[in-house]
Amino acid sequence: MITLMINCKYPRLIVFLVLIACLGTARADGSFSGGDLASAAVVSGSAYTWGINLAGGAGASFSAPQKVPQLIGVNTVALGRGFAVALKNDGTCVSWGNNFSGQLGNGTDKNSPVPVTVKNLTDVTAISCGEKFVLALQKSGLVVAWGSNEYGQLGNGNTIDKSTFTPVKNLTHVIAIAAGANHCLALKSDGTVWAWGKNIDGQLGDGTDENRSIPIQVKGLNNVISIAAGWGHSLAAKKDGTVWAWGNNGAAQLGNGNNTRQNTPAQARGLTKITQVAAGKWFSMALKSDGTVWTWGSGGAGQLGDGTRKDRSTAAAVPKLTGVTAISAGNWHALAKKSDGTLWAWGDNSMGQLGTGNTTDQLAPVAVQGL
Q1: Given this model, what pLDDT does residue 51 score?
Q2: Half-sphere exposure of residue 86, counting CA atoms within 13 Å on the CB side?
């Protein structure tokens, strides 16, 4: 995830990278999620990126997918602020791009335009990138982290950056992880959610606005099946199909009909039978069991997919989008994978991050091309 100012069609926009990973193709066979100024995909074990150029060199951005050279056996790619991390099938990780906070995890602070191995890390099953840090879930159910630790987002009890991984303290039996800009969520096998890192907007859900360098349980949540972390807000879907949200609500991204922030979970209105949630900067997404996608919050870049740029304080279905099996939210754009393997994208496309071969924003879903 990332916060920066850029000179674009939204001159006052504070651009935030929720950069995790993004898959875009006519036929997608790998995992996917959305970023901000860049996106990434895994296809047949190879990694592709598009949008802003993460490796440096010629070209500031690419509006069509570019294969990462000499990288195979990949099942997931996650994106942070100008850097990427790939999880390989053997449980190891490699990374490339910016490294000013040690976010490449190789024991140095030197940038690398080519993938380097994350030092001594094995048995990884999932990864998630924040602005300048990384979370990794291991087979044991433990979580490790590395990179920037300004707000305690590494979860190791201090605020010192780490260029090699460190265990997150007091956290076991984890089955899913989510990195926001500077806060983290973990879902345990018992259905509880734990949070740590930055908490200025109440995004940790513990009833306070105090940063936490060690995980603390989110209040009043159980039976959770899906979690998502945005810039300053958090989402959870429960087994009963309801969605709960907390944190920043300046654009009504909590979906409860108002703009009041919440430091404990509050139920989002009008949502039932939800199986997955995703969080952008100031907007949110939910996937229903019938294959429809629902969005709410900020719509300024068309990221709600309803053909407008209007904000919305409660959820509504994305028109004419059905048969969806998975979703992901970038900063100001969204992605959805259909049961036929096609990928669809909409919202901000200022750096070509929709993968459509151009830089035109899309206010409704269009097919991702070029993989």
Answers
A1: 86
A2: 32
- Quickly tell me which residue has 């190891």 as its tokens: 92
Is the separation of the CB atoms in 329 and 228 below 8 Å? Answer: yes
Count up the domains in the chain and report the number.
Answer: 1
Distance of alpha carbon 178 from alpha carbon 279, whole angstroms: 10
Q: What is the pLDDT of residues 54-109, one digit of tens each?
A: 876 545 788 888 899 989 999 999 888 889 999 999 999 999 999 999 999 999 99
Six token digits for residue 239: 């087994």
Domain residues for 38?
3-367
What is the tens place of the pLDDT at every residue in 175-232? Answer: 999 999 999 999 999 999 999 999 999 999 999 999 999 999 999 999 999 999 999 9
Q: Are 179 and 148 in contact (CB under 8 A)?
A: no
DSSP class of residue 183 equals E
CATH number at residue 102: 2.130.10.30
Which residues, in sequence order, are bridge partners of residue 144? Answer: 136, 167
Spatial distance between the Cα atoms of 151 and 344, rounded to a whole number of angstroms: 35
Q: Are strands 3-5 and 212-217 parallel, antiparallel or unpaired?
A: unpaired
- Structure token digits, residue 334: 């969204």
Tell whether the model's pLDDT for residue 9 goes beyond 80.
no
Amino acid at 334: A
Flag whether the pTM goes above 0.85.
yes
